[in-house]
Write a structure and sequence with these properties.
By secondary structure, the protein is α/β, with parallel strands linked by helices. It starts with 11 loop residues before the first strand and ends in a 6-residue tail after the last helix. Strand 7 and strand 8 form a beta hairpin. The chain has 7 helices and 12 strands. It has a 6-stranded mixed β-sheet. Helix 5 crosses helix 7. The longest helix is centred in the middle third of the chain and has 18 residues.
C-alpha cells in the first residue's frame, strides 16, 4: 500500500507494512493507549514502520500534538499482542491502537505534555464517535495485558482525559488503613474481588485464591484507576474504587 486518506482529519500518513485483516469481520469497539518506550518519537515511528519489527499501531502522537496515522482503522494493526478483555482474545482485531510518544521507564516516566494529551483526547473522541465506542472501552495496554505491559504508565493523566470527554473515570477512594486482600489469601472475599475484576473486563479466573494472576490484575487496575499506590494489594481504597466504577457503568454492561 503506497498511501491512504487518513481516517482522522489532519493526521499525517506514514504507511506501515505491519498490518492485516481484522479477523472474523470484527470492527473496532475498543481503543488501546500505549506509550512508545523509546528514546525518541522518530525512532518509534521508524520501528513501527519497519517490517522486521512486526509491530505497528494505527496512530502515533508526538509530544507537540502532531498525529501520524500508520495503519487504516479498517485494518488490524499489531499493537496489543497477547491479551484479552471481557473474555475476548485477539485484542488487535477489535481495537484501535494509539502509541503516545513517551520514553516511559527509559527515562523515569516523564510527564505527558498538555498539548500532547489534548491531541490524544481529540483523536479518541473522534474515533469513539465514528465507531460508537463506549467510554469504558478506552483502555490502557496494561489493562489488556496485566503483568506483561505497564503502558501508558502510572503518570498517564486519566483524570484529565475524562475532563476532556474520554474514558470511564471515578475519583479514586483515598488510600488509608483497613482490611486488605493479598497474595496467599483465599475464600469468598477473594472470589468476590475476582468477580468484580472480571465483570469490569480483566482476564482472571474466579477461583477464590489470591494468586499471581489476581495480583497482576489488581496491579493493572491500580495503575489505571488508583495510581497513588501500585502494589497489587487489594486494600479498601482499591476495592471501593472498583465497586464505584462498576456502579457507574451503564446497564448495557451490568
Amino acid at each position: 500500500m503506497s498511501g491512504f486518506e487518513p481516517d482522522y482529519p489532519g493526521a499525517e500518513v506514514h504507511v506501515s507494512p505491519n498490518f492485516g485483516a481484522r479477523r472474523d469481520g470484527l470492527k473496532p469497539d475498543c481503543v488501546i493507549l500505549h506509550y512508545t518506550g523509546m528514546e525518541s518519537g522518530a525512532a518509534a515511528e521508524a520501528w513501527l514502520c519497519n517490517p522486521d519489527s512486526e509491530v505497528s499501531s494505527h496512530y502515533l502522537v508526538y509530544e507537540d500534538g502532531r498525529i501520524v496515522q500508520l495503519v487504516r482503522e479498517a485494518d488490524r494493526a499489531w499493537h496489543a499482542g497477547r491479551g484479552s478483555w471481557q473474555e475476548r482474545a485477539d485484542v488487535n482485531s477489535f481495537s484501535v491502537g494509539i502509541e503516545i510518544v513517551n520514553s516511559g521507564d527509559l527515562a523515569d516516566f516523564p510527564e505527558f505534555p498538555e498539548v500532547q494529551i489534548d491531541a490524544v483526547a481529540g483523536l479518541c473522541r473522534d474515533i469513539c464517535a465514528r465507531h460508537a465506542i463506549f467510554p469504558e472501552r478506552v483502555l490502557a495496554h496494561s489493562d489488556v495485558a496485566p503483568g506483561r505491559k505497564i503502558d501508558p504508565g502510572s503518570r498517564f493523566p486519566w483524570r484529565r482525559m475524562a475532563e476532556l470527554g474520554v474514558g470511564h473515570y471515578v475519583e479514586p477512594s483515598p488510600v488509608r488503613g483497613g482490611r486488605f486482600l493479598a497474595m496467599g489469601d483465599g475464600g469468598e472475599p477473594v472470589e468476590a474481588l475476582q468477580s468484580m475484576l472480571g465483570l469490569y473486563g480483566y482476564g482472571i479466573e474466579i477461583n477464590g485464591l489470591f494468586d499471581d494472576a489476581t495480583h497482576r490484575a489488581v496491579e493493572a487496575f491500580q495503575r489505571h484507576f488508583r495510581p497513588e499506590r501500585i502494589d497489587g494489594v487489594a486494600d479498601q481504597s482499591t476495592i471501593e474504587t472498583l465497586h464505584r466504577l462498576l456502579s457507574a457503568l451503564p446497564d448495557r454492561i451490568g
